Amino acid sequence: MNEKLPSEALAFDRQHIWHPYSTMIAPPPVFPVVAADGTKLTLADGRQLVDGMSSWWSVIHGYNHPRLNEAAHQQIDNFSHVMFGGLTHAPAIELCRRLVEMTPEPLSKVFLSDSGSVAVEVAIKMAIQYWHARDLPEKHKLVTLRGGYHGDTFGAMSVCDPVTGMHEIFTHILAKQFFVPQPQCRFEEAWDDSDIKPLEKMLAENHQRIAALILEPIVQGAGGMWFYSPQYLNRARELCDTYNVLLIADEIATGFGRTGKMFACEHGEVVPDILCLGKALTGGYLSLAATLTSSHIAETISAGGAGCFMHGPTFMGNPLACRVACASIDLLLDSPWQERVQAIESKLRSGLAPCKDLVPVKDVRVLGAIGVIELHKVPDHRVLQRQFVDKLVWIRPFGRLVYIMPSYIINEEDLDFLLGKMVEVVGDL
Fold first, then answer.
1. Which end of the chain, N or C, is surrounded by fewer C-beta atoms within 10 Å?
2. Co-location of 116 and 90 in the same domain
3. What is the separation of C-alpha 242 from the centre of its chain, rounded to a whole number of angstroms?
């Protein structure tokens, strides 16, 4: 449907449709898209925007990619969905084979789900059910980092930062988890072992009650776009082993090359006990996620009192999503994705450098295909959003952050244009 949207349709949207994190009283503006191709979004009024968000970091190959389109067409002409309970199919088998092959040992068991938040719920339930099966039901708490974000469902919300994780209003009804300070050693800074001491103390005092440590490796995403030292990850792994606590790596935002490694855990050469994947898994075509774990954890859960893992979404293993995910992974592996991400990182560093001297700017940070400007104050997002659209770029700020995570296929001209407009708008604040 590439036709222009009538004014009546937009009025209906404004009156009846709730968009993410928005109000229904004087809702913020939305910009109707009628086409998307490569790294461009075409609005109903004919304007083309250079996309800096890759639709919340998922569209790594760009929009309307012929190989992904072909995969979707082939599968939908065959069958689009069957239940995964008692049935299986080639797309799911092929996807799980790829995931096992591309992730490190001993990750070998794959649980497919609908979204990143559900992948985190699954990981939390795996950790709790694992210890229950080992006759240690008291180990049912999670420990996590301040500044983190893991999703919008209730288990996931409980391990988000109560303030920056956007769920403060639910604090009193969420499961009470343990929090430690955000790592302070930056990604490229010299390591200071005092950075790990709060986690060490927490585990030493509470490991009898803690099932797992959950963290976003290297990059804390929606909680603040903070990049921390790989050595923190290494030390966290060591502490989890010492205190008999599982390590859950939430790679929903960082997986599939975003930080310059296929998975961010590789920066620290760390293997988690449970790994969560999503977002870029299907190249942004369909919602799909995966939670991987080891044979030991899977078999321990399966031998427990319940006799099975207690989870099973209706759309688990959706064939259409699995087929597109297979094509997306193949497309990534067949491409020079590392060189592309390195080129984007270099351009981000040079293009955002002028912002460091701007009065409104507190910090500028870059890692892989992620570029972040942190402001001293929270801007008027409605005004900022319109300014970006008027300058023909799609950038969606949140909190004090103005950031981009472009598709890996973005060309130099479009990236220069995107960065130039980003600097202009921030400079005019």
1. N
2. yes
3. 29
